[in-house]
Write a structure and sequence with these properties.
By secondary structure, the chain is mainly α. Helix content is 54%, strand content 4%. It has one domain. It has seven helices and two strands. Helix 3 packs across helix 5. The longest helix has 40 residues, at 97-136.
């Protein structure tokens, strides 16, 4: 969660229109067996990278405030943690009732801090989920098109494959198809939108800011 909020500004090229007739020929898999990383396809799509850049600008005040608050919390927790370790060492590494109480207070502080950071990061998490959902909605179509164009008969998840040749990876082909199907996405969810398309008051979500890629 920490690294996600401390994302550096992405050097993104402007999104360009994709002319289907100008697309390069798609390489075919030699054996009919292929591998794919769908998460990578979404993350490297033009629409996603452009949206991430937009979010880093739109949500900069929230991201800055979150980073500032996180730094303060980490400093406080380190101070409390060091004090707890010192007390335990002074007691011969034998927890006393006072140390146990101190430890419980430390845990409570951690939980409270995590909940606070989640609340602060919720607008960013919701916006990012909305961006991803717009792309995922067309991901199956992109995979089917890439599978057909590369003449792949069986497609395996890349992360579950021990070894494969570069020509077996059809992830770039999926990215090409996804760029054609979803040239751009919105970073502004409808009022009350939640991941999964549900409506209503957004539930607490893990705070995640755009990742640099």
């Amino acid at each position: 969660m920490k690294t996600m909020f401390k994302a550096a500004a992405l050097a993104l090229a402007p999104m360009t229109a994709i002319a289907l007739t100008a697309m390069p020929a798609v390489a075919q898999t030699k054996s009919g067996l292929a591998v794919v990383d769908l998460e990578e396809a979404v993350a490297k799509s033009t629409a996603y990278t452009t949206a991430i850049g937009q979010m880093q600008t739109t949500y900069k005040p929230q991201i800055d405030a979150l980073n500032t608050r996180r730094t303060a919390i980490e400093t406080d927790l380190k101070t409390k943690g060091d004090a707890l370790q010192a007390a335990l060492k002074a007691a011969g590494n034998k927890p006393t009732p006072a140390i146990e109480t101190q430890y419980q207070q430390y845990q409570q502080t951690q939980q409270t801090a995590q909940a606070e950071l989640q609340r602060m990061g919720q607008p960013i998490a919701i916006a990012r989920a909305y961006v991803e959902e717009q792309l995922v909605a067309k991901l199956d179509d992109a995979l089917k098109a890439a599978t057909a164009k590369t003449k792949s008969e069986i497609v395996f998840k890349k992360g579950a494959t021990e070894s494969f040749g570069a020509g077996a990876d059809i992830t770039p082909a999926v990215i090409t198809e996804l760029n054609a199907l979803v040239p751009s996405v919105s970073i502004t969810p409808p009022a009350g939108w939640q991941p999964g398309g549900r409506q209503g008051a957004p539930a607490a979500a893990p705070a995640q800011a755009p990742k640099s890629r």
